[in-house]
Design a protein that fits this description.
Layout lengths: L11 H19 L3 H6 L1 E9 L2 E4 L1 H13 L6 E13 L2 E11 L11 E11 L2 E11 L4
Parallel strand pairs: 1-6
Antiparallel strand pairs: 1-2, 3-4, 4-5, 5-6
């Protein structure tokens, strides 16, 4: 049985747009803007954090609104892409490393360092976050 592989064409603009998805989350977090944070997700997007699972932009927005008033109040978030893979011309996976900076911190504490997987899809010409999951970074 012969198998065929097709080459997908990815533009530099698409690469830049996909890599900008984490930056949009960082910007929304910097402003503690739960709506802008949730708007990065698809309508049925999922967010998995240690101990939490939220599905849909409305659930994600409500969760983050509470978090920005509670445990994430005054925090910032940081992240650096480690890997980018396109699955198709309109879907990609980004792996990042970063974490939450406590108020007043400029360096990420090891106990707050995470690695994250971002599943990004192109919908109506815009790259959106379909799935996000992070876990403690552990050993570097």
């Amino acid at each position: 049985m012969a198998t065929t592989t097709s080459t997908i064409e990815i533009t530099e603009a698409d690469k830049a747009a996909v890599v900008s998805v984490p930056a949009r989350i960082i910007a929304a977090w910097a402003n503690h803007d739960a709506k802008a944070f949730a708007d990065v997700f698809t309508a049925d997007g999922t967010m998995i954090l240690p101990g939490f699972y939220r599905k849909g932009a409305d659930e994600i927005e409500a969760f983050m609104a509470g978090a920005f008033q509670g445990p994430y109040k005054g925090t910032q978030v940081t992240g650096t892409p480690l890997d980018l893979r396109f699955l198709t011309s309109d879907s990609a996976i980004v792996i990042t490393q970063g974490g939450v900076l406590a108020p007043g911190q400029s360096e990420l504490a090891d106990d707050r360092a995470i690695r994250a997987t971002w599943v990004v899809v192109k919908q109506a010409g815009e790259w959106k976050l379909a799935g996000y999951q992070n876990s403690p970074r552990g050993a570097a």
